[in-house]
Specification:
Layout (H helix, E strand, L loop, with lengths): L4 H30 L1 H7 L3 H27 L1
Helix pairs in contact: 1-3, 2-3
Protein name: Secreted protein
Keywords: Membrane, Transmembrane, Transmembrane helix
Organism: Streptomyces zhihengii
């Protein structure tokens, strides 16, 4: 049995980058939702914080759906 180490390394690298990006997007969404109270107190735009958070969550959902599509197809 021969292991293709280059392919294994590339799969590891892509998986690591995708995981960090997905966790980062989800974290930005949570931070956007938590900034609503401080935006209200300072007179800022609550809609902007909420919209940014929802965009981050939508991108996370798209990434997960694409991953499921790749596995199933």
């Amino acid at each position: 049995m021969k292991i293709d180490w280059a392919a294994l390394g590339s799969v590891f690298g892509v998986s690591l980058v995708a995981t960090v990006a997905l966790v980062g997007l989800f974290t930005l969404g949570i931070i956007g939702l938590s900034k609503q109270e401080s935006a209200t107190a300072s007179g800022g735009s609550v809609a902007l914080a909420r919209t940014g958070a929802y965009v981050c969550f939508a991108l996370c959902a798209v990434a997960v759906a694409f991953g499921i599509y790749l596995v199933v197809d």
